[in-house]
Amino acid sequence: MSVMRKPLIAVLGLLLVGPGVGAGRAQSAYVVNDGHFHLTNYVQQGTDIHDFLKIMGTKVGRVALFGIPLQQTWSYGNTGDFAPTYYLQTDAPLYYYSFTDAFIAMAYRSLTPAEQTRLDPMITGFNPADMYAADHIKRVLQTFPGVFSGIGEFTIHKEFVSAKIAGETASLTNPAFDRILDFAAEAGLVVILHNDVDMPFPKPGQDPYPVVQLAAVLKRHPRTTVIWAHCGLGRIVHPVQDQIGIVERGLSNPDLPRLYIDISWDETAKYLMATPETTQAVADLINRYPDRFLFGTDEVAPTEQAKYLKVYDMYAPLFARLTPEASEKLRKGNYERLFDAARLKVRAWEKANPR
Ligand SMILES: [Zn+2]
Questions:
Q1: What is the pLDDT of residue 254?
Q2: What pTM did the predictor assign?
């Protein structure tokens, strides 16, 4: 156990022995909130939501919870009797699986009200290349009022994935994406967007158009709260030169007041913690913008707490380099501020727009 986590555990122990603590105080006893979590995988299988609450246990306070909008086809012609469960295991296409939203909503509704307060379900089952995508999101809110806080994680540019999706390829320049961001602002939904910072193997001097286009579209939607997942990193999309500069220019830009970054995914941690120097540079950036970063695991359907919190443990050296304020906000405070606001706004929108 790292030195910095001992006091937190001690605080946790003290609070747990005191009976009748209010929800707010009990909340503060948790070590972390998870801003990025998939309950189900690419074939829509996953952890039972009641088991997941046990895995959160006394360590994880709240979780932004979603399935995966894409279903991996089991194409017998491609893999025969081998049933793929991940997009890298077959060349068969992925397709948008809208039923995920009903599945997540029904799972959430099977919980007690106290259990529900620890989760912020997200809508994902829409095709971002479809002008009707915003209408799907609206319909989900009206069909399952009282459930959802946001949309995502959904994907525009993602290595290996975007090119495998059947139908029109999503793009940042598609007006369908503008409609989604407009509606998110109207309803108060938090957006978690996966968009790689660049293509996997850019030629020297190649225009990093994914990040240029991302800045342009977000500037058109300054009222929409957008969490840029994994700060644009991926399995093989590694930090473009000047990654810290790109993120810093985004966060310092007055035209992007509601841009946030999540540091979820062990693949992201791999890059951010590559050397003591990169870890320090990332810590310095978070210390300069303590209100703009969220922790997340990006775990998919975990079976035990140790596996679920692997990414949290990987980040211990980063947490140790943060100011106490930045560490608290990254791990818990920013999540609570964004999602508390979203809950209020989305519930108000649902009341004003009944089915
Ligand atoms: Zn994810």
A1: 95
A2: 0.90
